[in-house]
Amino acid sequence: MATIRINNATYIKSNPSNTLLETMENAGLEPEYNCRDGHCGACRCELVSGEVEYVGFAMAYTPENSVLPCICRAKGDVELSNVNYRLKEKQA
Ligand code: FES
């Protein structure tokens, strides 16, 4: 199964039916987001390697090599950097 490498530190399994944002959340991460619809740019990060497919229209500024995880899915192994996230706190 394809993997998503995040900030050169974390690996998670890729789920091609979910967006990158949803995949990170399902893996126990809390990535930064706001609109979840390609408008605000809060989720923006860099695509170091791999390919993504957009499932929505990117309205936020996305410089070259940047992606909006809320509206794209991994097409295979993907490496991202500058992802702002923290680990979900475990509930007792
Ligand atoms: S959360 Fe707003 S562009 Fe991704």
From TrEMBL:
| Entry-linked Gene3D superfamilies | 3.10.20.30
Give the InterPro entries listed for this entry. 2Fe-2S_ferredoxin-like_sf, 2Fe-2S_ferredoxin-type, 2Fe2S_fd_BS, Beta-grasp_dom_sf
- Pfam families reported in the protein's UniProt record: Fer2 (PF00111)
Annotated 2Fe-2S ferredoxin-type domain residues: 1-86
> Where does the signal sequence lie?
none
Q: What is the designated name of this protein? A: 2Fe-2S ferredoxin-type domain-containing protein
Taxon lineage: Bacteria, Pseudomonadati, Pseudomonadota, Gammaproteobacteria, Vibrionales
